[in-house]
Specification:
heterodimer; A: 5-stranded parallel sheet; B: about 210 residues; alpha/beta
């Protein structure tokens, strides 16, 4: 019998029951909850007179709607305010731990969870947010769910699931200097496409992936969903175990030792079978910039905007033309000649301490270009913010002309006041360049934190070596 | 959830690939704490010329007359014909809520994004995957014949064209059963309480740090 993939092992360890056509009840170890996708779920529980199955498996925070400035005034948007207050009320009523606004531990769910050790290797993790794939970075099975499923997990601690297929994405060799986790995952999406992972659970492997820090691995798994895969994952190694030691929710003492022993098995067996294998050579990956309205529309910084006339598939040609028109770009324009109006460093993809350090290295001793209307740095959590301030990163950013903000999702999806105006162009470390994502008619280019900081300094996209 | 049996109606063609959930229902409408009322803001940024807000009076807003939902021939439609990777992006269930609230009951495309696909079934929407060439053919027929209608019979898993030609489709047996009966997933799962409790006690012994 062939060995098991990491996904097979995680799946098998969580099957409560399975019927003859493969529909399974999968046990969920951790649910993260935020204000946007939970109110209707709690309301559903109330209407059916149901209680949460296990309150200590659930952890909540407010992130999508929270303002990142002027916190002393609270939330001024009454609709957003009601939603955040509804989360507070629901958590109180149903006895769920919440890190609310003003709590140092509040932050983006996908930053807060691992930071607290609330998501751990070997767990099944769900949240009403597609970027829940982030938590796969430490050998967990993690994916986004809809609000009906949020309610289902609250009520039963289980999900009704069918097993996905297995895909292995190997990035072999060593990364070039200046190439980050963000560039790796954008290059992968460029290779397999935004629907390439649909129906699969992706395991990321290979020397280049192993060389990434745990935070870098989170960036890679975070964007598995942009390749169409609900979950992405990476095998456990010493870096993973080291990362969780002494985190508040992580096991302690004898339990820690037992957990670490169990986590040693969280990798694919040598003879495991994958339904699809994709290989990339790390040496071919350069810093990436998206040019269109889908994350697969991506090229290297030294490239040009692609030309639809070079394509043959009519649906693809129409898509490229629509994207160029929306983005206000001409085919064959060198990427480094594209000027930007705003810069956003933040989001569940790139708002952890290492992301801020990487951006600060570029910003240090330099000034944001006079052509830039706004350059925001939004830490992923209150604790990331405190750590950055302790290291003096806020000072570096502010001296250079960046705004240093409070934690939240912010301009990644522009539910709060941080957004693009029509036709404004943004160098953004977030995960989606969809039409209207950062504001109606706003134009988003996805990049790494270092590339975003460099674009802020230069006023246009630039290869950091040329800054 | 509304039970689903047979749907018959006008087909709206949405001729672009990778239609994402931000396009289906823009983020400002996600601030609602309700699960209804999203229909007037379905495809808001494509459908209207101004910026919609949750408290906007949609009846007075300027319409983008070129957008397919605003064309007279597609009014009252309950079947949406789409391209590859429909519903990609976020897990927001507001996307199927908005489609359902607008009046759609069936979505047809060569492929759907996983989370959206799953969310649709929970809300009485039937997403049907058909081969690319069949979808191409449907697009050309819908666009050339005004008032083009399809009939979808879930129990028989058959789509019937105006010329009586039949297209069979696949659907997962469990999802089909739930849709036909309008069943509540949670109620079904709670029939297995003892399985869940048995799993928990086994797991507690093997991995106590998870509890």
């Amino acid at each position: 019998m062939a060995g098991k993939t990491l996904y097979d092992k995680l799946w098998d360890a969580h099957v409560v029951r399975e019927d003859e056509n493969g529909t399974a009840l999968l046990y969920i170890d951790r649910q993260l909850v935020h204000e946007v996708t939970s109110p209707q779920a709690f309301e559903g529980l109330r209407l059916a007179n149901r209680k949460p199955w296990r309150t200590n498996a659930t952890l909540a925070t407010a992130d999508h709607n929270v303002p990142t400035t002027g916190l002393e005034h609270g939330i001024t948007d009454p609709v957003a305010k009601l939603q955040v207050e509804t989360l507070d009320k629901n958590c109180k009523e149903f006895d769920i731990v919440e890190f609310g606004m003003g709590d140092k531990r509040q932050g983006i769910v996908h930053v807060m969870g691992p930071e607290q050790g609330a998501t751990l290797p070997g767990m099944t993790v769900v949240c009403g947010d597609s970027h829940t794939s982030t938590h796969g970075a430490f050998g967990a099975l993690a994916h986004g769910i809809g609000t009906s499923e949020v309610e289902h997990v609250l009520a039963t601690q289980c999900l009704i699931q069918k097993k996905s297929k297995n895909m292995l994405v190997e990035v072999k060799g060593d990364l070039n200097p200046g190439v980050t986790a963000k560039d790796v995952v954008l290059a992968i999406i460029g290779e397999i496409g935004t629907a390439g992972g649909t129906g699969y659970a992706i395991e990321f492997a290979g020397g280049a992936i192993r060389s990434l820090s745990v935070e870098g691995r989170m960036t890679v798994c975070n964007m598995a969903i942009e390749a169409g895969a609900r979950s992405g994952m990476i095998a456990v190694d010493d870096k993973t175990i080291e990362y969780f030691k002494d985190r508040p929710f992580a096991p302690k003492g004898d339990l820690w030792d037992r957990a670490v022993e169990a986590w040693q098995d969280l990798h694919s067996d040598q003879d495991a079978k994958f339904d699809r294998v994709v290989s990339l050579d790390a040496r071919t990956i350069q810093p990436q910039v998206t040019w269109g309205t889908s994350p697969e529309m991506v090229v290297a910084i030294n490239d040009k905007v692609p030309d639809p006339s070079q394509e043959s598939d009519p649906v693809k040609i129409e898509g490229m033309k629509a994207a160029l028109a929306y983005m206000g770009l001409q085919a064959n324009t060198p990427i480094s000649e594209i000027s930007v109006d705003k810069v956003f460093i933040g989001s569940c993809t790139n708002s952890r301490i290492e992301d801020l350090r990487a951006a600060a290295v570029v910003a240090k001793g330099r000034k944001v270009s006079s052509g830039i209307k706004q350059a925001l740095v939004v830490p992923g959590s209150g604790l990331v913010k405190a750590q950055a301030e302790q290291e003096g990163l806020n000072k570096i950013f502010e001296d250079a002309g960046f705004e240093w903000r409070e934690p939240g999702c912010s301009m990644c999806l522009a539910m709060n006041a941080d957004r693009l105006e029509p036709q404004e162009r943004c160098a953004s470390t977030s995960n989606r360049n969809f039409e209207g994502r950062q504001g109606k008619d706003g134009r988003t280019h996805l990049v790494s934190p270092a590339m975003a900081a460099a674009a802020a300094i230069a006023g246009h996209f630039v290869n950091i070596d040329n800054l | 959830m509304k039970a689903f049996s047979t749907v018959e109606g006008i087909v709206t063609p949405m001729d672009r690939a990778n239609v994402d959930t931000d396009a289906i229902i823009p983020k400002q409408f996600l601030k609602s704490i309700k699960r209804s009322g999203f229909g007037p803001n379905l495809f808001d940024e494509w459908r209207y010329l101004d910026l919609g807000e949750p408290d906007s009076d949609n009846s007075g807003r300027p319409l983008n007359r070129d957008f397919v939902l605003n064309q007279a021939r597609y009014q009252g439609s309950n079947i949406l014909l789409a391209r590859d990777n429909f519903g990609c992006g976020s897990s927001r269930e507001h996307a199927p809520w908005a489609l359902e609230d607008y009046g759609f009951r069936v979505l047809i495309a060569p492929s759907f994004a996983d989370i959206f696909f799953n969310n649709s079934f929970k809300n009485g929407l039937l997403p049907i995957v058909l081969a690319e060439d069949i979808v191409d053919q449907l697009f050309s027929e819908v666009e050339s014949i005004e008032g083009y209608r399809l009939k979808i019979d879930l129990a028989k898993q058959i789509i019937t064209k105006p010329n009586e030609e039949e297209i069979p489709f696949e659907v997962d047996a469990f999802r089909k059963h739930c849709l036909l009966k309008g069943l509540d997933d949670i109620g079904l799962t709670l029939e297995h309480i003892s399985d869940i409790k048995n799993y928990e006690s086994r797991r507690k012994a093997d991995a106590p740090w998870l509890f």
